[in-house]
Write a structure and sequence with these properties.
This protein is about 35% helix and about 25% strand. By secondary structure, the chain is of the alpha+beta class. The relative contact order is 0.17.
Length: about 300
């Protein structure tokens, strides 16, 4: 895709962020995919549109729970506000989101409702999560009640690092840390309850926040997508094992197998992905979108 005629502020693992003016940014989601914090060479078809449109769905639905940076993801509205993007309308449709500019908080706010992934690995080894003890005797995929706030440092490349809530408070102050934790729990609870009605368990998820120019704390980036969350089919949930998933679990599972066989050390460059793994991942993204929104993906929105 030809770059939009706007200053590029940063290129992340999945998104490019462009400056529209002093107050507005344009986020453009690509079909790049990362796993274990490494960007794969291959692209996952329609992934960028799923991330953008599903985030837009959630931002609109959750506006009464927590304020966000979201303005619009409708391409007609975007080009009306930024006419210079008209020649790029086709490439941006479905993938671009206009948002308020913020100063991002330098932590990812992870909420874990179930013991899975890296949290399960840490617990199995040490009985802790981000260095803090959990109850004894938990099994893989066990429900955590109440959910656990498990923040992490943010990394544009390389691996994120889990930290304790106390570390966030030490870095940002207790008031900001408390607001981040409360807001994260509120968004997770609202999303979890809505998804449960549609047969999906949101096992865990990560949020990002930023401060607007007026000091307001806003939910930013993406929210409750297959990139930022683990979605499990509720009808097939059974604790004591890994769960089938609507997110990029086919990719994670494949890479985990390659690592276990000694074919990859978990760092860049990643191993090549078979076509069937890419296709399976794309299908999972599209299915998650359909179940949560109740409609098929429309890339020309």
């Amino acid at each position: 895709m030809t770059a939009p005629p706007l200053p590029l502020l940063r290129r992340g693992k999945v998104r490019e962020v462009y400056q529209v003016d002093a107050d507005l940014l344009l986020l453009v989601a690509s079909d790049r995919v990362s796993a274990f914090d490494v960007i794969m060479r291959e692209r996952v078809p329609q992934k960028g549109a799923v991330l953008t449109q599903l985030s837009a769905f959630w931002f609109e639905r959750l506006r009464g729970v927590v304020p966000s940076h979201f303005i619009t993801a409708r391409i007609a509205d975007i080009v009306a506000r930024v006419p210079s993007l008209m020649p790029h309308r086709g490439a941006l449709a479905g993938r671009a989101m206009l948002v308020r500019r913020t100063t991002p908080v330098p932590f990812e706010c992870v909420v874990r409702g179930y013991l899975s992934g890296s949290a399960w690995q840490e617990y199995r080894q040490r009985g802790t999560l981000a260095g803090e003890p959990l109850a004894a005797g938990l099994e893989e995929s066990a429900r955590l009640e109440p959910p656990v706030f498990s923040p992490a440092t943010k990394a544009e490349s390389g691996h994120d690092v889990n930290v304790t809530p106390a570390a966030v408070a030490a870095a940002l102050g207790s008031d900001t840390a408390d607001r981040l934790e409360r807001s994260s729990f509120a968004v997770y609870a609202a999303g979890r309850d809505y998804a449960a009605e549609r047969g999906i368990i949101i096992a865990d998820t990560k949020f990002e926040f930023g401060h607007a120019a007026d000091g307001a704390l806003l939910l930013i980036d993406e929210v409750l997508t297959p990139d930022s969350s683990r979605f499990w089919p509720a009808a097939r949930y059974a604790p004591g094992r890994a769960q089938p998933s609507f997110d990029k679990q086919p990719l994670r599972d494949y890479l985990a197998g390659v690592k276990a066989a000694g074919g990859w050390n978990g760092e860049a460059p990643p191993p090549p992905l078979p076509d069937e793994v890419v296709a399976a991942t794309s299908r999972r993204y599209l299915e998650a979108f359909r179940l949560l929104t109740g409609r098929e993906l429309e890339e020309d929105r």
